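Q: How do we represent a protein-ligand complex in a form that can be generated token by token?
A: Start from the inputs.
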Amino acid sequence: MTVIQCENLEKKFRKKKALQNITFQIEGEKITGLIGRNGTGKTTLLRILAGMTKQTSGTVTILDKTPFNNLFVSANSILINDQMQFPGSFKLQDILNFAPDFYEKWDAELATRLLQYFRLSPQSYHSDLSKGMKNTFNFIFGLATRCTVTMFDEPINGMDEAVRKDVYRALLKDYLAYPRTIIISSHFLDEMEHLLEDILLLDEGKVALHKSLDELREHAIGLQGPADVVKKWATGFEILHEKQLAGNQLYTVLKAQDCTFNEKQLLQEGISFIPVSAGDLCLYLTNTRVGGIDDVFND
Ligand SMILES: Nc1ncnc2c1ncn2[C@@H]1O[C@H](COP(=O)(O)OP(=O)(O)OP(=O)(O)O)[C@@H](O)[C@H]1O
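Then emit the structure tokens for the protein with adenosine-5'-triphosphate bound:
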């Protein structure tokens, strides 16, 4: 079943095109990572999907409904971000008490247990929490809604490493018990790679790639060895990233399409295959310069 569908979505802020030609669909229950550099339109896309803002043109449907101003979509989806506002007079417990009025699948026990585990006092005011604590509470809230479409916009900002690890684990355990469509935008792809089934990579407001992680891992190949030999083998391939290393060694990442390297011969010529992590690959695919920051310091 198609849960999310976008066709030629465009969003302009005055003359600025924040999103353009966005076409993709998400089928069924899975966790998708929404990845992209700063300012590439992740938040804008999530806000459109959640019905908080309207696209300039194109179509978007969530559970077959247009999300903007749609009560059905509001009841069945949630966007968690650090802009979430709750009434100033509400303690955390008050927020939890009101949640079942809006979210029919609300799991009060899960929310309470997670609050205890993360040592968040139900008597605290949301506005008094630190950044990391606020995001932890927001995450708990999002998880406990069990919404059919649950979206997290950079949920782990401000959380320390131990909390992040627990949050990833809680997300995975709850998802396995109650599968649903989850989208997480994050700059920490390497950390949460194990959670994700698909990657939706945005670059300058466009979809750069929408693939499963398995497909993504086969998308590129890393070669390292003597610079002249690496360059010889890389001839004719699209180079996604290049880094000069000590001892005249070169590390090159190539687009793996139609790669038919003879691994034995490469090894004989001193070239090693280096796996390219999904996080690094997404960075290379959205870098404007093949050599990255090093280029700034090179003549
Ligand atoms: N309300 C707005 N008014 C004008 N421009 C906006 C507005 N919201 C977003 N933009 C612009 O749209 C583009 C996309 O912004 P968006 O916040 O969606 O990116 P992002 O990928 O979430 O970025 P980050 O990773 O830094 O949070 C940016 O150029 C931003 O300046």
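The first strand starts at residue 2 and ends at 13. The two ends are 53 Å apart (CA to CA).
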